[in-house]
Write a structure and sequence with these properties.
60s Ribosomal Protein L30, Chain: A; 3 helices; two-stranded antiparallel ribbon; alpha+beta; globular
Amino acid sequence: MAITEHLNALGIQIPPVPKALAAYIPSKRTGNLIFTSGQLPLREGKLQKTGKVGKNVSLEEAKDEARQCVLNALSTLLLHIPSLDHVKSIVKLGVYVASAENFIEQHLVANGASELLSQIFGEQGKHARFAIGVSSLPLDASVELEMTVEVE
């Protein structure tokens, strides 16, 4: 089944490419690799949740935010390829979590993104990854994500 058909079957829509918030481009292709810029969990240009995970954002809310970051990152791939059917492999995922001082489950926040990529792409969605806690993110977002993707 084509990825586009699979997304429809899952009820997942890829949003429009989020506008850059500063002096950068949403993603850059070199050869068969696309590197995304850090993507915030923007929905229609706005954050739904702000703050620190473990303080005023729950683990489940942060996992949902990580999933939105993935969708936004996938949208930027479409600046370089005609459809997500051209994705060969999700190579690496980097997840930054704005964390309360005592929050130590950044890896579980990142699972929200990793599980969605596996659900969408199957074996092609399995990737290397890092998940780190940071003191703050742009616009007081709780999660930011970057991807490296191999394409045809």
